[in-house]
Protein 1
Amino acid sequence: MSSPSSSIESVLVENRVFEPSAATVAAARVSGMKAYEALCAEADKDPEAFWARLAKEHLAWHKPFTQTLDASDKPFYKWFQDGELNASHNCLDRHMGTPVENKTAIVFEADDGAVTRVTYKELLAKVSQFANALKARGVKTGDRVIIYMPMTIEGVVAMQACARIGATHSVVFGGFSAKALQERIQDAGAVAVVTANYQMRGGKELPLKAIVDEGIAMGGCESIKTVITLQRTPTACHMVAGRDITWAEAIAGQGTDCPPVFVGAEHPLFVLYTSGSTGKPKGVQHSTAGFLLWARLTMLWTFDLRPEDLFWCTADIGWITGHTYVAYGPLAAGATQLVFEGVPTYPHAGRFWQMIEKHKVSIFYTAPTAIRSLIKAAEGDEKVHPKNWNLDSLRLLGSVGEPINPEAWMWYFRNVGHERCPIVDTFWQTETGGHVITPLPGATPLVPGSCTLPLPGIDAAIVDEAGHDVPNGAGGILVIKKPWPSMIRTIWGDPERFKKSYFPPELKGYYLAGDGAVRSADRGYFRITGRIDDVLNVSGHRMGTMEIESALVAKTDMVAEAAVVGRPDDLTGEAIVAFVVLKRARPTGDEAKAIAKELRDWVGKEIGPIAKPKDIRFGDNLPKTRSGKIMRRLLRAVAKGEAITQDISTLENPAILEQLAQNN
Ligand code: PRX
């Protein structure tokens, strides 16, 4: 477990509080702390009645449910089980005949600045047409479809089209490697891949289809019967006869009407792979009704969405944030949203601010890593400082993915929100489906760097290793005591791992988030102190240390042993540090540099560029206990450059610490 102590100290010294303005409170859907507390009290008193009321009010059911929660097979909770609905119907069809029908659903800005718009009605037609294309290619209800696409309208269309026919999608982030893609295809047993020939990022054309081909060619992907490729750029790509078809060919001749397939509430809407403590990524399975309910409700509660808002979540559809707050939540809530293909620093680091001005964005939701890198850019170059653009359209800011340090929070608050816009620091995870601990803009007084309080219905608590509550001010393990509708249902194909990872017996059946947290002594506000397992958070991307270790030792001609730890990093939150023992003598100097580069590139190929270690150190061996266990806490200290003050009495080979501390 990593020590949360330094973060706890900063919680104790943070005493700035920003109350919501009277006007914000008056206009808000959840208006004032009393309204928030009333919802919490309703949920506490009778959780099932609370969730049943919300599910009836907020989802369009084809067949109403009669049982709210089935907890007969814990922790495999089932919500609204006998009800039937369709997610795409809830996001699109349900708005037809209402004022939302002709409202813009998506404003798309491409990497080069070109803008395209689609209304809800047009989006429904596109989704239906692509759903028909999937059916024509043999995709059926219950099948899995891999989506490996850039941020585009078509990316959202592909996800919605799968939902429309009851196929379970599994989106793979475009930065993952062929190998990572192959593993996900195999694990999911997918029948189809939807991709693009290339993606445009920062003015560069990056291949996608070639990586799909490479992944499938690695073998074991016989389940794939078809690959549909969007021609995103004019450049040609290789097409395999019989298997591959372009997006344009696939939709040619298909009608724009496709009746939604109504599925059971628990039908798996998607599987999204994420990193855990062991080597293999886990396929987090979400339900249809529970997920969608929370996607819509958190749009209304956390973002206090209004009909005139222009909502912009900068996350990629390859991550959970892009699922809940791009592909489903905004559409289920009838919002107009901006979808952006490119990167925040191209053609200059003022791109986000420029886009907020250009599209009159009112709600802006991004990651601390992006904020920190844009602060750095603005400090280095006045021309890209947000003050150069008119940001008056903004009324609410959000943060997600990692702890936001109070300094970055204050900069965001002052320079982007002009001290007018509340910041919702939303804590959640792939597994929670949507926000779980977050301020509500018209209710919660804000404290920089704190995600404040749980949403109504979310029974979050901090406990010790035996599951007992710890007092405010003392750090501990973050858990959620009661089930809630948008929680992970299982790990695809591995229910045992699901039980073991999230419901360890010593924690009394509570959901284990995997994060450490502390509540402030005065307000009981939560602050997340970081992961307590072997998961790193690098630029808001979740990476398993074991996953990177497995990749390194897979280079069998070179690597004998590897251990990976995280080191705090001002820009990326955490940086990956790998300690490697080679099969040959320990290299130094230029040779060490060359081998480190080779290993970094290798990891890039095995997992993806986001997993490349920032720092690789070579040793004759690794610090181990006499029983042969690698002492990671010592490696963490070495990675940070700290003097070792910890107990090393169980260490077999103390001399190794000094060797590893040298940066080759
Ligand atoms: O450590 C927490 C951190 O991100 C982890 C979840 O990562 P992932 O499943 O990829 O989902 C990211 C987007 C929801 C958590 O276990 N995390 C996420 N949001 C916050 C956060 N840490 C602190 N504050 C947050 N607001």
Protein 2
Amino acid sequence: HAKQLGKDSFQLFTPQIGEALRLRLALERDLRAALQADDQLTLAYQPQYDAQRRIRGFEALARWRHPQRGWVSPAEFIPVAESSGLIVELGLATLALLRRDLDSWRASGLSCPLVAVNLSWEQCRKPQHRERFLQQLKTLQLGPADIEFELTESADFEDIDKPDSFVFTLQGLGYGLAIDDFGTGYSSLAYLRRIRCRKLKIDRLFVHGLSANPESRTLVESMVRVAHAMRMLVVAEGVELPDDEATLVAMGCDLMQGFGFCRPVPADGMPELLRPAAA
Ligand code: C2E
Ligand code: MG
Ligand code: MG
Ligand code: MG
């Protein structure tokens, strides 16, 4: 009977696993092509606002327009890029796209405040990858006044202990760092203290609906207090509701980002946001 069951489950699951694997490999192949193509990958920019609703910075977010499938979500292609190693090339391409966009705005007489770029741990692990990343920053002349980096809180935070940690290298060069999706990962207060990041980004899981949720409110209030005690700025992600904005402002949250303010905008929508009147 067991043999029969085994055979049944073999027949039941293998085609599905095969299909998932096939899709993943196809995505990887297409992403590799996209990195060569140079008209498929772009950046969108989402503004970050202070309590007075002034724009203080932007987060750059990768966008991929697949020639057949159309827009593919980063939630789908970033994990594939990370597991295939393509994230290294994607990270370098992202910097080049940012440089191109900054130059085109500058040519229109517009200057852009600080842009936050997401950095995967997979880009930080190997010395040769770190070296290429630093070289790309240098070649493109993207300095600490132009960009900062966001690192998602994860189990890899343990790597921060190592004295040659890339985090410390970037900080030594003057770049600011933000801990992304804070509250969903594994970082301890000891790590927060050791790495001394500039910003703490509270994940939208805690932010959305917080004004009506006493538990979320208490948690976010504590995170704001902890961050400020460590001289970090607090950024709330995923702010969608006016009541949540008001609550966050009352708590002393420094910056806010979310659909309630502005969705990520493509590069050609940026001039409108960068005009001095709007800044
Ligand atoms: P993230 O870094 O936490 O970026 C914020 C995500 O939340 C973005 O999704 C943004 O569009 C979305 N978001 C912003 N405001 C709201 C809101 O009010 N409500 C909701 N529901 N969502 C909101 P996106 O662009 O799909 O990116 C997803 C993730 O993919 C990012 O999360 C980041 O971890 C990763 N990612 C995106 N671009 C890059 C990149 O260039 N490099 C790397 N390594 N990762 C990237
Ligand atoms: Mg981010
Ligand atoms: Mg993230
Ligand atoms: Mg985030």
